[in-house]
Amino acid sequence: MKISFLAPHLKVSGGVRIILEYASRLAYAGHDVTVCVRSANPIRRTVANLFGLGYPKWVANFGARVLRVADFTAEHIPASDVLVATTYQTALAIAEYPKEKGRQCYLLQHDEGLYHGDRALSDRAYRLPQEKIVVATWLKELLKDKYGQEAVLLLNPVDRELFRPVPRDLRDGVRILILDHTYDWKGTKEGVAIVAELKKKYPEIRLVGFGARKPQSEHRYDEYHYNLPQEKLAWLYSNCDIFLCPSWDEGFGLPSIEAMACKVAVATYDNGGSRDFAFHEKTALVAPRRDTKRLAVELERLVRDPALRERIAEGGYKHVLTMPTWEEQTKQLEKILVGEKQ
């Protein structure tokens, strides 16, 4: 089967990880898979396509082909059995393609009208008669309740070989890990402030930041890990006691389940995506969306109570082991793309 994914970019991010992993794994399953990405510079685009440059090196053993295109108009996209849009922009683009370009699917990983773009255009994309695949239950419910659209639920898996408990070698105080991000809705600023306030009462706390970007200057970390290789992330998670997720809204929330897979206790907002794996008092401690006081209370419980930390970490880890694997979800996606009824 010939499959073309239309991706927003190839940079490190959770949503792009999902796109690239599926593309790569489908290629290894024997399909002819192309990931199409925009490249404005015609010289760089031509050279990259001619010599096979610019592949996502951060995805181990990436198996699919990458095609740099000037834009997502039909003339630049190869004819395929299936076209997979991954943003509302690409969903709108393929809606204009002739039928011979391929059957249309839309892999939807967030409510893109919230923060990522034009609300009216995303609404229009969600109503298109394309087969929709969503990564979280709340997105399936959103499409049904607000847009009258059915969607196939394909929960995001976590790579259990990449994310697993590893021996700890850093033991300085209670280590709280947080993702540093420039988007306001990721909640980095609030999360850092919560930890700073807790430090007054628990000076042994160490705030550990990480991210694909250099840390924001206003965020004061005791330690920061910039753009770690993917194979080092399990070490980072495993060397922390708590993962704090202050994100207001998540399509799914990969870092939280990555932390769980490394047997780290999670404190999080109810941010939508967390509902598929963060169950209060069982697999995580959960505060209502954007209730900073409650999130601070839940975080403090984990800081002061080692037994609770261990119980929540163990509960999260055991739950991750029950979740679908990459192999299982790739087979499910393959069935969807072939057109089998779900």
Descriptive overview:
The chain is of the alpha/beta class. It folds into two domains: 2-156 and 325-338, Rossmann fold (3-Layer(aba) Sandwich), CATH 3.40.50; 174-322, Rossmann fold (3-Layer(aba) Sandwich). 36% of the residues lie in helices and 18% in strands. It is built from eleven helices and 13 strands. The strands form two sheets. Strands 3-2-1-4-5-6-7 form a seven-stranded parallel β-sheet, with helices on both faces. It has a six-stranded parallel β-sheet with strand order 10-9-8-11-12-13, with helices on both faces. Strand 5 (103-108), helix 4 and strand 6 form a beta-alpha-beta unit. GO terms for molecular function: glycosyltransferase activity. Belongs to the glycosyltransferase group 1 family. Glycosyltransferase 4 subfamily. Residues 176-318 form the Glycosyl transferase family domain.
| CATH architecture annotation name of the largest domain | 3-Layer(aba) Sandwich
Q: DSSP helix count?
A: 11
On the 0-100 scale, what is the average pLDDT?
95
CATH topology (level 3) name of the largest domain: Rossmann fold
Uncertain stretches of 5 or more adjacent residues: none
Which structural class do the helices and strands define?
A: alpha/beta
What's the CATH class of the largest domain, please? Alpha Beta
Which features would summarize this protein structure in a list?
glycosyltransferase; Glycosyl transferase family 1 domain-containing protein; six-stranded parallel beta sheet; globular; Rossmann fold; seven-stranded parallel beta sheet; 342 residues; transferase; 2 domains; 11 helices; alpha/beta
